[in-house]
Amino acid sequence: MHVVALLLLAMAAESHAGDNVSVKPFSIAAGETKTIEVELTQEDKVYTALNFDIILPEGMTITKDEEDDYNVTLNLDVANKNHQIIMGMIQTDNHFRLIVASTLLKQFKKSGTLMTIEIKASDMVSTGTFKCQTTDKNLVIDSNNSTWPEDTECDVDCHMDVSVSALGYATFSWPRALDFSDTDVEAYVATEVTGDVLKMTRITKVPANTGIILKGAADTYHPQTTDSPTDDAEGNLLLASAKAPYTVSTDNVFVLSNKSEGRVGFYPAAQGLVIPQYRAYLQTDAEGLARGLFFDDSTSGIGQTEIGKKKNGTWNQKTDNIYDLGGRKIETDNKDLKTRNDGFYIVNGKKLVIK
């Protein structure tokens, strides 16, 4: 109570241009937990205490530790070891009042990063540039003198991070609708299972809570959240774990993997396997132990899929135009299919499945 009373008694306001407390600009991904910095500037006077309100962009909040205390940490290079942080009465989802004071009226040592605050952006946050405000500030010189700096705001870049591994594929789902139009990664839904082939159809504006497969170079991509109408994903066979991790409890669940060298596909998942949140999986009672991916993309130049049986099978095309899906040419001196790995091959512009 003594600390709070000190701030309330310091009512003789002075103007000291340049003295302030503010949040540094920061960037954060949807769903990310991040540490931000609060900067103290004291050019004219040296202060003993301060208080301010921080208003984070909608969808962001200050995190708490296991003891239900807010994750706010003083920097003792700037604050004195006698200073302490008190959370004020204003505590909403994104609006907080913070008080820093010393019962011994110790002064802050210098300008610089006064404290760090751990915040989290929810997975429902919008992408774009927003503002983080610091308002209702009071920098206390002593029990009789203080200054009331102007409100400030900083830019906050909020974005989506979606990663594709070296396999060139990844499953994904998100609780908000996403627009992949301006990215270099392609999004697909699964529309049909035929034998060992899973037919995929490309979409760009993905509905919320929709399981998709991403196809692209190994990298991190940044789709945008959208409130506009999305593409039709009705009949999509991929299930989403956008709301929570999913624990496999049946024998008909398949997950994206590369168990057979050179053949990325959906393979049976063991019961008890936990599929992480924000992924997708296939659940089907169709016969067959593995699902190959068929990307139904009109720009690929790949048409109908044919089946090549290993038993008594040979290459039946008299051509050198045989490639794997990575674009590598296949030597065809030995035409016996039994010497080939299971998987997809491109023959004369058509997809051939060897199994």
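Above is the first protein from milestone M3; the second protein from the same milestone is given next.
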Amino acid sequence: MNTEFDDMRQQLNILKEKLQHQAIVNDQIFRRSMKRNVMSINRRYTFISILCILTIPYAYWAFVVMAGMSFYFWLATLVLLLVSFCYTIYNGRNLNSRLVERDLVDARMKVANAKKLDADWLMIGVPLAVIWFAYFVYEQYRISNGDDWKYMVTAGAVGAVVGLVIGLWLHFKIQSDYRQIIDEIDDFTSQPSLTR
């Protein structure tokens, strides 16, 4: 009888070890997937940041030197680009490879906060872009003295629509990646495990 209990205890211990090993493997797979999503968001934030910085000298050349717009318009463009750059850097500050090594509750909180900040950017960025475009229209009208300014404004509007579509696509893709990370953390932390 004692031998049967010892055999059952030994089998139970083997089963526990297998389950613990499976939980470790699941944790590694989960963290790899989470890291992939975090790095995807980081790549987009890096692209946006680089684009903001590279656009500053180009904007001066295109607006002031080539188009003859006012220096103040370029300053307004500079402020818009720097605000975008700083907000992007600020929001992405906690999204790095160390995030996946953290406690999942802490990681979820940081990702949820970054998702909210990213969503809040629309409340700031869209009005700033509308004001900037209105200033662009005014500058085009001012430098053309009323002649053919509609063509430049139309070209600017086409560029604005293309930029809006690309910007919204990036925004919704980033929001989707954030949502996926949060859902994966929620699913993973709701699983019963012997290691926790």
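Note on the second protein: Residues 90 and 114 are 9 Å apart (CA to CA).
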